[in-house]
Amino acid sequence: MLGRPRVTSRVALERLAFELFARDGFDETTVDGIAAAAGIGRRTFFRYFGSKNDLVWGDFEDQLERLRVLLDEADPAAPMMEAVRAAVVAFNRYDPQEVPWHRQRMELILRVPTLQADATLRYAAWREIIAAFVAARTGQPPTAMLPVLSGYAVLAASISAYEYWLSVGAAEDLTELLDAALRRIADGLAASDPATTGLATARPEAAALAITDPATGRPEVE
Q: Helical H runs in the chain?
């Protein structure tokens, strides 16, 4: 028997590690175990990934840049939250052959307690990109209430869609679930979009407090 060929790429090492996580469990799988199965040394493993946790997140930094580009390329005339929704859905669209691997990745990220500290840091970076986009659209600083709220709300909707997707198996399309979840929150946040409410960007505090009068459908300012 020749055994498994030596792993010579980042992607191949990631896939092998995922197989070990599925077989033995994430916490039970060690860097030494991954390296041995891949036919490489620890030093080579750490040339590919900074840690076992980093391996699970893959090329997260590159993906963050992709989300930023999708938002930057949004039609300036499109309503703010429609642009966010379209960008986030596109960001989470995967080729069919990649979906099983992505599902396993998200199972680990959302279900393994020892990955939660890393998740907190990476979620913060993700939210900041959404907040920066909303801030630019509304003329507010990224630390203002509306941009911060938007970042948290969009992330929460996305995680909710992922949790449901993982719970129902392959029966549902991820992008359709994300689209539906983001439409729900977009209806509320759209009331603060100056492009749709007519609120001047010179008054960002007014935009942040805009609500919709259910009787008239028109925005009010508290």
A: 10-24, 31-38, 42-48, 52-57, 60-72, 80-91, 99-111, 116-138, 145-168, 174-189, 194-197, 204-208
Region 132-160: mean pLDDT is 97
The predicted pLDDT at position 187 comes to 78
Distances (CA, A) of 99 to 70, 75, 135, 200: 21, 28, 33, 43
Residue closest to 219 by CA, chosen among 202, 198, 200, 201:
198
CA distances from 146 to 17, 36, 116, 155, 196 (A): 40, 49, 26, 14, 15
What percentage of the chain carries pLDDT values higher than 90?
Answer: 76
User: Helix 60-72 and helix 116-138: axis angle, to 10°?
Assistant: 20
Domains and CATH numbers, the chain: 10-55 (1.10.10.60), 57-188 (1.10.357.10)
Burial 70-101 (b: 16+ CB within 10 A, else e): bbeebeeeeebbbbbbbbbbebbeeeeeeeee
